[in-house]
Design a protein that fits this description.
Number of strands: 14
Largest sheet: 5 strands, mixed, barrel
Number of helices: 7
CATH superfamily of the largest domain: P-loop containing nucleotide triphosphate hydrolases
Strand content: 25-35%
Order of helices and strands: EEEEEEEEEHEHEHEHEEHHH
Shape: globular
Number of domains: 3
Radius of gyration: 21 Å
Structural class: alpha/beta
Length: 310
């Protein structure tokens, strides 16, 4: 890697680059392959995120200022009632990593799939650590548990980051892939196997707490090849959906879509309204009825924000 050079910098001339790392209000921007500028944002500009295409003004050989963020194709983020956490922009593929251990929170998977659907991001469910199946029976997540998601049409790949990572390689080609999931599922180990120069820190999971420790503390983009990138993100245990409304939330359940807009009442919330085609389909077994309580729980979690909360 080389930092910005005087050959590529002229006073007062802006450059276009991609944010490859985000550290609060400081960023690394790649203006050309291997040419990196350490940048701050102009004034009180907020919302710059890893994966953004930006315009920067070099100020010294190694430093610059982000002056503008170019339009995004996608934005993957979570939103709590009074707080948003932007994760990555211009992502084309979400790789949600699960593992045999620690135990997986499938609601967390559902929430991320819904956001991916909302943004038009292609999802891939990755079951890691399959070499551990059978070693901790009370804390297993097996391929059988993911059969439901396969039946919904989501691709599911089973690997071990230690031994069979090459099975993932063809699915990375031509994509900007975001690795996401809870702590301890092996995202950093997986990245190190795919991009050895990444040198991401790893840690053992806690058997007592059935959870992992945060080893990745910021979002960073790594080139996989000339046309492909991988964005690594810190693990998380919760994923708020306050950026969605009830309509977009329901649309995120792919099996609901054939019935949306067909209910007796145009403003049907699919809770207990008469003539609800979605509830009727669930009762008739057209899709797994367990998804209705899941939807209701997520709807209940959506809170109306006061218009002036910002």
């Amino acid at each position: 890697m080389r930092v910005g050079s005087t050959d590529s910098k002229k006073a007062g001339v802006s450059l276009t680059g991609r944010v490859i790392a985000a550290y609060g209000r400081h960023f690394e921007v790649e203006a050309a392959p291997g040419t990196i500028y350490s940048c701050a944002v102009r004034g009180k500009k907020k919302g710059v995120v890893c994966g953004d295409q930006v315009e920067i003004l070099p100020t010294t050989e190694n430093n610059g200022v982000i002056e503008a963020t170019l339009p995004r194709t996608t934005l993957f983020y979570r939103s709590e009632v009074f707080r948003e956490k932007l994760i990555a922009a211009n992502v084309t593929q979400l790789i949600f990593v699960l593992a045999v251990v620690p135990s997986c929170n499938l609601e967390l998977l559902d929430r991320c799939l819904i956001v991916a659907e909302n943004q038009g991001i292609k999802p891939l469910i990755l079951l890691n650590k399959i070499d551990l199946i059978g070693q901790s029976e009370q804390k297993q997540l097996t391929a059988h548990d993911l059969l439901f998601y396969r039946e919904l049409g989501y691709p599911v790949l089973e690997i071990s980051a230690q031994t069979s990572v090459q099975a993932l390689v063809p699915l990375l080609r031509g994509q900007t892939s975001l690795l996401a999931g809870q702590s301890g599922v092996g995202k950093s180990t997986l990245l190190n196997a795919l991009v050895p120069q990444a040198l991401q820190a790893t840690a053992e999971i806690s058997e007592a707490l059935d959870s992992g420790r945060h080893t990745t503390t910021h979002v960073r983009l790594f080139r996989f090849d000339a046309d492909s990138s991988i964005i690594d993100s810190p693990g998380f245990q919760e994923f708020g959906l306050q950026q969605l409304n009830e309509e977009t939330l329901a649309w995120g359940f792919t099996e609901f879509r054939p019935f949306l807009g067909l209910c007796k009442f145009r403003d049907c919330r699919h809770i207990a309204e008469p003539g609800c085609k979605l509830l009727q389909a669930a009762e008739e077994g057209v899709f797994d009825a367990r998804r209705i309580p899941c939807y209701h729980k997520l709807v209940k979690g959506l809170k109306k924000l006061p218009p002036d909360w910002r």
